[in-house]
Amino acid sequence: MIELKIQQIKILFQSADIHELDSLIKQFQDDERATIKQELVKAKKRMVAYDKEIMRLEQMKVYEKEYHTLPFICGIDEVGRGPLAGPVVAGAVILKKDSQLLYLNDSKKLTENRREELYDRILEEAITYGLGFVSPERIDEINILQATYEAMREAISKLNVVPDILLNDAVTIPGVKVKQVPIIKGDAKSVSIAAASVLAKVTRDRMMKDYDMIFPEYGFSSNKGYGSKDHIDALRIYGPSPIHRKTFIKNLVG
Asked: Which of 68, 92, 167, 197 could form a disulfide with 107 if both were Cys (CB 3.0 to 4.6 A apart)?
């Protein structure tokens, strides 16, 4: 019975929401059994980690707090400027003012599983969002910088409301009338930009996995179009696919 009771208590701690831990700790703080003491230590560590995460997120809301009087603060970011293949994708997101997206960060610093989890939560917390896409052919035609701007403008145009301000990752987008605030490494400094980064990254990664089924020889599912050794080797063996950027690979293949 004692072992069963210990197991029950362990399940209580392990399944508890972070906001339930404090009361559980108080409930079992005088329990002298070693296993329960271990659960108390783990629970306290969880609470400390949670508090640190809340503080980190608050630091990522500096720009959102600065412009808090504006109804619609939009974060903008893009992914796919560097790959040899595939589109460039931009995300634009307006989050609810009270959104609390734990573990949100620059999409490049997150695991694929974390990005997928955050993707769904961002959609739930977004007032509106938009995605912009520019094809490899268009990138070759106008260059990657102009393609990035084009994707960003498309993402903005798909929002259901007109933003009052744009928080951009590093760039100022030509041809946009809304006030813009370019932020260097903004995807690590603004929750709005980070959210846009995650939406764009997950969307593009899913597209590259779909392309992998059409052109399996290039390994797009794993390299996402970036210039890995296996990708470059495949390019030299098979030549370019229809989704390769000709201006990016001209020095790699004959």
From this structure: 197
C-alpha closest to that of 248 among 77, 78, 79, 80: 80
Architecture, CATH, for domain 62-207: 2-Layer Sandwich (3.30)
Contacts of range 111-115, beta carbons closer than 8 Å, 24 or more positions apart? 112/205, 115/198, 115/201, 115/202, 115/205
What is the reported pTM?
0.88
Look at residues 148, 129, 118 and name the one whose alpha carbon lies nearest to residue 73. Answer: 129
∠66-109-241 over CA atoms, to 5°?
Answer: 115
The runs of H, that is alpha helices, within the chain are: 2-15, 21-28, 34-59, 62-66, 112-125, 136-142, 144-157, 191-214, 220-223, 229-238, 246-249
Q: Residue 116 CA to chain centroid, in angstroms?
A: 8
In the chain, what are the domain boundaries? 2-59, 62-207, 211-249
**170-219, pLDDT tens digit by residue?**
999 999 999 999 999 998 999 999 999 999 999 999 999 999 999 999 99
Cβ distance 245 to 139 under 8 Å?
A: yes
Count the neighbouring beta carbons within 10 Å of the beta carbon of residue 130. 23
Instruction: Compute CA 156 distance to the chain's CA centroid, rounded to the nearest angstrom.
Output: 18
* Exposure of 190 in the CB half-sphere (CA atoms within 13 A): 31
Q: Are 90 and 80 in contact (CB under 8 A)?
A: no
| Residue length of the chain | 254
What is the tens place of the pLDDT at every residue in 101-155?
Answer: 999 998 989 999 999 999 999 999 999 999 999 999 999 999 999 999 999 999 9
User: 251 CB contacts (<8 Å, ≥6 apart)?
Assistant: none
